[in-house]
Specification:
Layout lengths: L1 E2 L11 E5 L4 E4 L4 E6 L9 E6 L1 E3 L3 E4 L6 E2 L1 E5 L5 E5 L5 E2 L47 H8 L1
Antiparallel strand pairs: 1-7, 2-3, 3-6, 4-5, 7-8, 9-10, 10-11
């Protein structure tokens, strides 16, 4: 990726993280911020921490693999029907990186979770299930509506 707008214009780096909800990217070595950490009472010295901050997606562009210049991306279909990304500068197919979900959904059951087998178990003795209404097979007709009015 290359920054195409802003004070970091012209810098290149790889994407470390994508913040989809905020429409921002964190790129390695670009938009680096500094933060000072004070010394702790138990003797640890103070230090300066550097970290990359997020950039808006509109301020960066993909690099063309051949010319190493920023390029716009278009979509095309190959002969076998697969949809691919193509760099407009050289027409080369841009490989799409594999995306892996970061917040893995929890499958473990804790002490306060209800087990799936216990969800439909009736534990209240006086419980009476509500009756299900039968659905009408056909809607009202004009003749039936006219007869009902009379």
């Amino acid at each position: 990726m290359e920054v195409i707008n802003g004070p970091e214009k012209g810098k290149q780096g790889t994407v470390l993280k994508v913040l989809r909800a905020a429409n921002r990217l964190i790129i390695e070595g670009v938009n680096v911020r500094r933060r000072t950490q004070k010394p702790t009472p138990n003797g640890q010295a103070g230090k300066i921490i550097t970290y990359p901050a997020a950039l808006n997606v509109s301020n960066v562009s993909l690099l063309d693999p051949e010319s190493k210049q920023p390029t716009k991306v278009s979509r095309r279909f190959l002969e076998d029907g697969t949809k691919v990304r193509v760099g407009r500068r050289s027409g080369v197919v841009l490989p799409k990186p594999e995306w892996k979900r970061e917040n893995i959904r929890r499958a473990a059951v804790g002490g306060k979770d209800t087990l799936p087998a216990d969800v439909y178990e009736v534990t209240w003795e006086d419980y009476v299930a509500p009756e299900k209404k039968e659905k009408k097979k056909e809607g009202p007709t004009f003749a039936a509506a006219a007869a009902a009015k009379e």
